[in-house]
Amino acid sequence: MRLFLHQLRTEQLMFWRNREAAIFVFVFPPLLYLLLGAVYDGEIRGFPAASVFLAGLIGYGCANTAFAGLAITLVIRREGGVLKRLRATPLPASTYLAAVLASTLLVFALQIAVTILLGVLLYDASGARSWLAVVLAGLLGGICFAGMGFGATTLIRSSEGASAVVNLIVLPMAFLSGSFGPTQDFPDVLQWVGKALPLKYLVDLLEDGYLEGEAVWSNPAALAVLVAWGAGGLALAARRFRWMPRER
Question: How far is CA 139 from CA 89, 105, 162, in A?
């Protein structure tokens, strides 16, 4: 436990000292919410627009932090030889990866708190009808997207291409999944693509809890899809995760 807490503290220090990463991972989702909240008002599907965007941007923040941020960080460390050197230390691999995951979830939790605070104070967004459902959905989403992030590191070959690859995935996924607003007016083909993406189901769970107060387990189909995507990413990482640089 002491090793884990020490490594968790190290991960947090490294994250917040890297200003570029902190801006991209932590600041970007709340900034998007500020922009959307300033442009749109009124109601969406009978709910305040600020609250609907709030639930969607929490989902986007999860994908941006737990998937994109984690994948970029690990690829850069792998190609820079950091992971290789870590394997030569007494720090167990499981402890290191657990600390990386815990640090990612902690950043995401802080991000959720900041985004909700902005919505309530600046745009009169309503509070969640069920905070427990929102917390559980966020925790599940963070773990599942982190699993996908671990898996994505096995497919990205270079640190130079890491940011481009994950953004090519995350931004269209957020658009098609409803993070930036309703998708019912999209062409049918785009709606079908959105229904195949994991973020769509996380946004559904967050909206169910935040807007309607429904429990997480009231939507078992969404839970199953999220868990399946996360398990698939972890299975890929278990088979192909590497500690050695690939481009040498």
Answer: 31, 8, 25
**Rg of the chain (C-alpha set):** 18
Pick from 94, 61, 100, 98: nearest CA to 77: 100
Say if CB 205 and CB 122 are below 8 A apart: no
Do 114 and 197 form a contact (C-beta atoms < 8 A)? no
Those residues whose C-beta lies under 8 Å from the C-beta of residue 119, and which sit 6 or more positions away, are 33, 37, 50, 51, 53, 54, 125
Q: Is the pTM of this model over 0.70?
A: yes
Mean pLDDT by 10 residues, the chain (248 residues): 90 86 82 86 85 92 92 92 89 92 92 90 86 94 95 89 88 92 88 94 95 92 95 94 79
Rounded-to-integer distance, Cα 248 and Cα 235, Å: 26
The answer to whether 34 touches 122, Cβ cutoff 8 Å, is yes
Task: For 103, list phi and psi in degrees, rounded to 5.
Answer: -65, -40
Q: How far is CA 74 from the centre of its chain?
A: 15
Q: What is the DSSP track for 192-230? A: HHHHTSHHHHHHHHHHHHHHH---GGG-HHHHHHHHHHH
CB 57 within 8 Å of CB 33 = yes
**203, 121 contact by CB (below 8 A):** no
Report the alpha-carbon distance of residue 113 to residue 216 in Å, rounded: 19
In angstroms, the Cα distances linking 98 to 102, 130, 150, 213, 245 are 6, 29, 12, 31, 21
